Amino acid sequence: MHELSIAASLVESVEQAARRAGAQRVARVFLRLGALSGVAKDALLFGYDVATAGTLLEGSRLVIEEVAVAVHCETCRRDVKLSSIQDFRCPVCGQPCAQIAAGRELEITGIEIEVADDASLQAESA
Amino acid sequence: MATRYLEIRQGVLSKNDQLAAGLRERFARAGLFVVNLVSSPGTGKTALLERLLAEMRAMGLHVAAVVGDLQTDNDARRLARSGAPVRQITTDGMCHLEADMLAGKLEGWDLDALDFLFIENVGNLVCPTWYDLGEDIRLVLLSVTEGEDKPLKYPVMFNSADVAVITKTDLTAACECNLDAMRANIRAVRPGMLIFETSAKTGAGLSELLAFLLAQRRAKYPTA
Ligand SMILES: Nc1nc2c(ncn2[C@@H]2O[C@H](COP(=O)(O)OP(=O)(O)OP(=O)(O)O)[C@@H](O)[C@H]2O)c(=O)[nH]1
Ligand SMILES: [Mg+2]
Ligand SMILES: [Zn+2]
């Protein structure tokens, strides 16, 4: 289960941010996951359930936005989506393309947290 | 209880990335060129390094190696026979090296006095992809015994590498390996990838790889 180390890092980062914001609990975590990140979605979801146990994230949901791989085609002079990560050729003109424009993402975009009412007031007035 | 959305925008592996960036700066200040070797278990990382370390030392270069291993210190002992300083990271079952493990192993080494540092990662084509170690070059190895389609099975690793080395070429015929197909598959997942072909047994192809590494170091540190 390769994704366990990724899930553990994810939980660590989110927990830190959540504590700093005075969260009592994390409800949802939003993640952008590129097809070229090498992280398998299902394995990550499974690892997430294991890694969140006993943390502020326990019982939370991981919401994954999948990002396709895009490369820059010098011939077409634009970014094109790859149909397969086993074939780095422009689907329009067939030119091999090494320059990656998107698809490596493994990024937390935001979290939904639960805060005590006074804490949320504090945070808003801060 | 109130619910709030908090924007974060942070790489999941940002902690490792930051540590690796720090290491990269440290290596650059020391004029040290760092190569991270990744492959499946048994591809021949240690065998290739034994040769490279010995040849580089014979040329008067100052080289060192850090080797990651799940359980044993066999590889470290093999590499130490070259006379180069070698350190071992026993990962205790963890299937890759991370920047903090490497940082912990550098203590006491005078990096300024070194020209090259080789890192032998744990044999695994998945997890080492994710962990930057501050290296200048990620070198992926693939042996003729593993089948031509390995790059298609592990496209992410092959794509993330800078250079590929096809190893055990003395066994090409015995394994009926089609080198053209293997090269094509590597370049299907990484167009333009530079590919070397070596045999640690016969020494074939080693001088080309060595010349490449020396040229890379010279390009990075022209005055060294
Ligand atoms: N014929 C031949 N055998 C080789 C060559 N390189 C390595 N071997 C053999 O392949 C086996 C594995 O080589 P290692 O150098 O230990 O491989 P490794 O990648 O370091 O293995 P791990 O560290 O366990 O992942 C050993 O039995 C080597 O003798 C080669 O160029 N030719
Ligand atoms: Mg080895
Ligand atoms: Zn095109």
Automatic annotation (TrEMBL), chain A:
Keyword Ligase: no
Annotated keywords: Metal-binding, Nickel, Zinc
Gene Ontology terms, MF aspect: nickel cation binding; zinc ion binding
Positions that bind Ni(2+): 2
Protease recorded as keyword: no
InterPro entries: HypA/HybF
Residues the entry annotates as binding Zn(2+): 73, 76, 90, 93
One Pfam family per UniProt: HypA
Domain of life: Bacteria
Gene3D superfamilies given in the database record: 3.30.2320.80
Family statement: Belongs to the HypA/HybF family.
Its job: Involved in the maturation of [NiFe] hydrogenases. Required for nickel insertion into the metal center of the hydrogenase.
Protein name: Hydrogenase maturation factor HypA
Name of the gene this protein is made from: hypA
From TrEMBL, chain B:
Domain of life: Bacteria
Keyword Nucleotide-binding attached: yes
Domain annotation CobW/HypB/UreG nucleotide-binding: ranges: 34-194
GO molecular function: GTP binding; GTPase activity; nickel cation binding; zinc ion binding
Keywords associated with the record: GTP-binding, Hydrolase, Metal-binding, Nickel, Nucleotide-binding, Zinc
Biological process, per Gene Ontology: protein maturation
Keyword Transit peptide in record: no
InterPro entries listed in its UniProt record: CobW/HypB/UreG_nucleotide-bd (IPR003495), Hyd_mat_HypB (IPR004392), P-loop_NTPase (IPR027417)
NCBIfam families, alphabetized: hypB
Similarity-based family: Belongs to the SIMIBI class G3E GTPase family. HypB/HupM subfamily.
PANTHER family tied to this protein: HYDROGENASE MATURATION FACTOR HYPB, HYDROGENASE PROTEIN ASSEMBLY PROTEIN, NICKEL CHAPERONE
Name of this chain's protein: Hydrogenase accessory protein HypB
UniProt gene name: hypB
